[in-house]
Amino acid sequence: MKSTKRKNMPPEERRAQLLGCAQMLFFSKGFEDTTIQDVLDMASVSKGGFYHHFKSKDELLFGVLDGMAEGVFSQMAVVASDKTSSALNLLHSFIHLRANYLREHDYPGQVEFFRVMNQDKNMVLLEQFKRRVRTGAMPILTGIIQKGCDEGTFTVADVDTAAELILFQSTFIDLALLRAIDARGSDTADHAAEKLQAAIDMQFLTLDRILGLPDGTTDFGWPEAVEVTMATVPATPPSAN
């Protein structure tokens, strides 16, 4: 909603406001269809005020992505700071970050957030977010894998390549998850749930084999994830006027 009165704010608050408005618009309209003027109208900010903080819409996008990724990186930093655990324990901590976050932060809301993020209009935003997360995660995961090789727990020919492959396949379950979310409450819900569980199992079986671990060593970290996902209530679509 457009503000009726422009309000003076400290620079950091104004920047945060612009980022918040941009994120709302990117999710509702999509990145490509959101204009800088849309952001100005929602925030009730002049063009000069906007360009004081951001040089372009792309720079605004990266600001939104940085905010989204900040929580992910802070959790990764905790794992990276652990110098005493074994590589296998560090690996489990690393790969369970996603499940832990989902389980602990309003999962029904996270389900709807995921659904919106995967809409066609948000594909640019989603891919840029995934790329930034992979970039931030790469040095942490390579460190874990190298430690595991040094300990004789992991067997890989090339640490960097193994880390890149693991990070790219970390979102393998997303398509099955999206299909399961869309199938909630329908005649195809049970089938979609089975496919989601199969995708989760296959993803972590692949991870075990990349690192030369016995099958079944790694897992998503939340055994009830599929059941809980299917039990969430779909958002009510807005009624047509």
From TrEMBL:
Keywords, comma-separated and alphabetical: DNA-binding
InterPro entries in UniProt: DNA-bd_HTH_TetR-type_CS (IPR023772), Homeodomain-like_sf (IPR009057), HTH-type_Tx_Regulator (IPR050624), HTH_TetR (IPR001647), Tet_transcr_reg_TetR-rel_C_sf (IPR036271)
Gene3D superfamilies linked to this entry: Tetracycline Repressor, domain 2
Pfam families: TetR_N (PF00440)
Domain HTH tetR-type as annotated: residue spans: 12-72
PROSITE patterns: HTH_TETR_1, HTH_TETR_2
Annotated DNA-binding residue span(s): 35-54
Name of the featured protein: TetR/AcrR family transcriptional regulator
